[in-house]
Amino acid sequence: MSERQAAILKITSEVLGAAREFLAREGFVELLPVITAPVTDPLRHNTDRAVIEAYGGKWHLTRSMIFHKQAAVRACERIFSFSPNIRLEPSEWGHTGRHLFEFVQLDLEARGATREEVMSLGERLFTYVTERVRASCCRELRELGRELPLFQPPFPRITYREAQARYGEGFEEALSREAETPVWVIDFPIEVREFYDREDPQRPGILLDMDLVYPEGYGEALSGGEREHEPGRILARLRTQGLSPDDYRPLLSLAEKGLPPSAGFGIGIERWVRFLAGLPHVRGTRLFPRVPGELSHL
Ligand code: ASN
User: Fold this and answer.
1) 293 in Cβ contact with 150 (< 8 Å)
2) Ligand 1: does its nearest atom lie under 6 Å from the Cβ of 223?
3) Atom 2, ligand 1: residue with shortest CA distance
4) Less Cβ around it within 10 Å: N or C end of the chain?
5) Largest Cα span, the chain
6) pLDDT score of 1 more than 80
7) Is 94 in the pocket of ligand 1 (CB under 6 A)?
8) What mean pLDDT is predicted for residues 175-187?
9) How far, CA to CA in Å, does 16 sit from each of 13, 60, 86, 129, 265?
10) Which helix (H) or strand (E) is 67 found in, with range?
């Protein structure tokens, strides 16, 4: 194994440890991840479904733990998981530098929290972990030739519409290239996001959600928001997105029994390590990368 690979693995380990420590101090409980489920995140972009058949039923490989997070905060106020996700993205996405079809996200959720609260948590988590990597992985960062910039929350914010007006339709790349600190994109229009992000009751058509975008052109870091939790609202949102309520029966049944309001986000670990280590492609963060369109020997 090369020195560079060893350095990247050490940084990854530091990210996991520092995030766990930070979240434990903030009162979060770690859940073991869910990998197979009768229902999973529909996602808004075109991703093939990964389904296995067993025991007379169909099991989706988890695309995110969103519904499990909403269910879990009934038991525990604040939860997180290092959740393996399978997303069979188009082969062409193998070249974006940002996509693996198997990756891990640190997915967290807090009962009764607002978007504002989880954004503040996200900034503090991001800054804490970055500082820990800077302090504990000096040798590794030097080996990789990476000079990590210093960041100071709060991070700047831009609405989806403002970003679109300033940088054009697919604004994320241009925004990320121009940014000197991580930057929040907030207030996504209802038609571009998944049905579970909560519509602002004061501003119909606008969601109480957000992305965090890395500086230096590394693209999206984190995605989340407040959640739809009332059965009538979930049903209406499923219908306007052309999704079949039958496919989401497990979620609707839970909501009928009572899902609490919550907010949360997920941050991709490989993209985080790619940014911290300054790598051209997320493939470099994993010993056994799963890149869309490529086969693997091990
Ligand atoms: N983890 C994201 C969230 O909390 C969902 C996703 O990964 N699509 O909103």
Assistant:
1) no
2) yes
3) 266
4) C
5) 55
6) no
7) no
8) 97
9) 5, 26, 20, 9, 16
10) helix 66-72
Helices 3-25 and 269-277: angle between axes, nearest 10 degrees: 120
Ligand 1 closest atom vs CA 266: 1
- Type of residue found at 116: E
CA of 94 to the centre of ligand 1 (A): 21
* 47: confidence class by pLDDT, cuts 50, 70, 90: confident
Indicate if the pLDDT at residue 181 is higher than 90: yes
Q: Would you tell me the crossing angle of helices 171-178 and 160-167 to the nearest 10 degrees?
A: 80
Taking CA atoms only, the protein residue closest to ligand 1 atom 8 is 64
Using the atom order of ligand 1, give the atom closest to the CA of residue 85: 7
Using one digit for the tens of pLDDT, what is the confidence trace for 150-165? 899 999 999 999 999 9
Which atom belonging to ligand 1 lies closest to the Cα atom of 194?
Answer: 8
Q: Could you tell me if the CB of 264 is within 6 A of ligand 1?
A: yes
* pLDDT (tens digit per residue) in 94-139: 999 999 999 999 999 999 999 999 999 999 999 999 999 999 999 9
CB atoms within 10 A of CB 139: 11
State how far the alpha carbon of 29 is from the alpha carbons of 19, 140, 175, in Å.
Answer: 12, 30, 34
Over residues 236-259, the mean pLDDT reads 96
